[in-house]
Amino acid sequence: MSFAQRITRAVLFLAPFFTFLAAGIAPASAQPISLIRDTEIERVLHSYEDPILKVAGLDPAAVKIYIVNDPSINAFVAEGQNIFINTGLLMQLKTPNQVIGVMAHETGHIAGGHLIRDTAAIQKASIPMLIGMVVGIAAMVAGAGDAGMGAIMMGQQAAQSQFMSFSRVQEATADQMGQRFLRETHQSGRGMLEVFEKFAHEEAGMKMDPLYMSHPASRERIDLLQQLVDASPYRDVKDSPEALHEFHMIQAKLAGYLSDPATVLTRYPPSDTSEEARYARAMAYFRMPDLKLALSEIESLVQQEPKNPYFWEVQGQIYVDMSQPEKGIAPYQTAVNLLPDAPLLRISLAAAELATERPAYAKPALDNLNVALQQENDNTFGWYEAAQAYSTLGNQPMADLSTAERYYSAGAMPMAAQFARRAEASLTKGTPDWERANDILIAVPQEEKEQQAGQ
After folding, report:
1. Beta-carbon neighbour count of residue 105 at 10 Å?
2. Is there a domain that residue 286 lies in?
3. What is the Cβ-side half-sphere exposure of residue 197, based on CA atoms within 13 angstroms?
4. Is 269 helix (H, G, I), strand (E, B) or coil?
5. From the CB of residue 358, how many other CB atoms can be counted at a distance below 10 Å?
6. Are 200 and 219 in contact (CB under 8 A)?
7. Average pLDDT over residues 389-403
8. Structural domains of the chain, count
9. Containing domain of residue 115, as a range?
10. End-to-end alpha-carbon separation of the chain, Å?
11. CA–CA gap between residue 328 and residue 315 (Å, rounded)
């Protein structure tokens, strides 16, 4: 084997090290994450974010907010204009203003085009690492193993230091832009300051090399943020009692859904008759499961606040889980009537209707699903339910097309093509549905190429 061939083979052998480094400095979305869907929480977060997006010159309709099932206090942007909010951030922060401050910071990353620049920075930072790899491999081939590994490690450290320097500039810029957005929406920047003060306190006991930090040194960051907050005429604006109550309700809902039921009942004992306590207990009892107690708690909330669609939604969900889907239809229908533009509520209503296994409910279920899927055409569960509805109605070609849509949305391209091919063969050529099946068949090869390129 020639020297050049040996070098090439060694580079291929070490390729996983490069991949590992790239993953370590890539956006957080590169890591597998678990998402939670909830209409109430998503709408509250959009009520925080949409005014900020508008003053940032961004279209709120183009920005999606995802809730990540992760107990750590974190938020990040990834994959274009997508904002990811950890459940830990919502459950551990104290006020809406703190959450809004974090979201304003993340909006600064979007408005500043930082994700696009990240890609270029990663590519630039990889140059010293690749040079170190080549030099190190050459030394290893020549018999100097220790020196070769040293050169490779030095290259990796130089790449990391270079990228982190770039990241620190971005973080500082996002801080300043976020504070500007808060001023322009007449909100206090104090919440953002409080969150980063919390981080600074946690970092105080950690020995970290400033060269390898992804954000500005804590003291410098806090000092600058303090100046920006003090200079704002809205620095002392407080969250309204209504905003605080709304925030406490989603915290209670998350606690009831995610925390150990015994912990929830300790934090929200039966002696506490507040709305948030009953909401948390309803979710905790639902998970235990003690569905009768869950139903009792949520019914007390429905009676107190009959125009709250989310209470009706939970009541419908409890009935469905009690294997009484027909009783769940009326609460879900009330929730949809109160909030007709919420696709998740319509999909839940349709699922309850189909769970009865009564053919009479198939058409109403499909009507709800069609409305919902026009708003959320990538909802895989919605497409699954649509396939069930079409099958019940005896329309197998449309059931196949819905299944193709489901697999396409899930990224399962071979299965999407299989069912799209079945649908295309049975649908009338030239109709919109036939065209959609054909579109999937055309798109699948390109999607597969993009997936392979990203691996």
Report:
1. 25
2. no
3. 13
4. coil
5. 12
6. yes
7. 98
8. 1
9. 3-231
10. 30
11. 7
3 state DSSP class of 36: strand
CA–CA gap between residue 89 and residue 52 (Å, rounded): 19
Are residues 311 and 296 in contact, defined by beta-carbon separation less than 8 angstroms? no
Cα–Cα distance measured from residue 413 to residue 13, given in angstroms and rounded to the nearest whole number: 30
CB atoms within 10 A of CB 27: 18
Residue whose C-alpha is closest to residue 423's, from 390, 391, 454, 398:
398
Are 441 and 447 contacting, i.e. CB atoms less than 8 angstroms apart?
no
Contact 423, 400 (CB under 8 A): yes
Q: Which two tokens stand for residue 74?
A: 């974190």
Closest by CA position to 348, among listed 130, 339, 211: 339
Six-digit token pair at 73? 């206090």
CA–CA distance, 284 with 258 (Å, rounded to integer) = 8
What is the Cα–Cα distance from 316 to 311, expressed in whole angstroms?
A: 9
Confidence (pTM): 0.79
Residue 305, classed as helix, strand or coil, is: coil
Q: Is 143 left (phi over 0), alpha (psi -120 to 50) or beta?
A: left
* Residue 218, CB-side half-sphere exposure with 13 Å CA sphere: 16
Three-state DSSP class for 403? helix
Which two tokens mark 394? Answer: 């005896």
In a domain, 377, yes or no: no
CA count, 13 A, side-chain hemisphere, 444: 21
**Residue 405 within any structural domain of the chain:** no
Distance between CA 45 and CA 243 in Å, rounded? 12
Sign of CA dihedral 279, 280, 284, 290: negative
In angstroms, rounded to a whole number, what is the distance separating the alpha carbons of residues 446 and 435? 17
CB atoms within 10 A of CB 157: 16
Question: Which of 101-115, 195-209, 359-373, 434-448 has the weakest average pLDDT?
Answer: 195-209
Strand runs (DSSP E) across 115-155, as ranges? none
Indicate the helix (H) or strand (E) that contains 320: helix 309-321
Mean pLDDT of the chain: 82
The proportion of the chain whose per-residue pLDDT surpasses 70, expressed as a percent, equals: 75
* CA distance to 58, 270, 309, 416, 435, per residue, from 441 (Å): 33, 56, 39, 8, 10
- Within a domain: residue 380? no
Rg (CA), the chain: 26
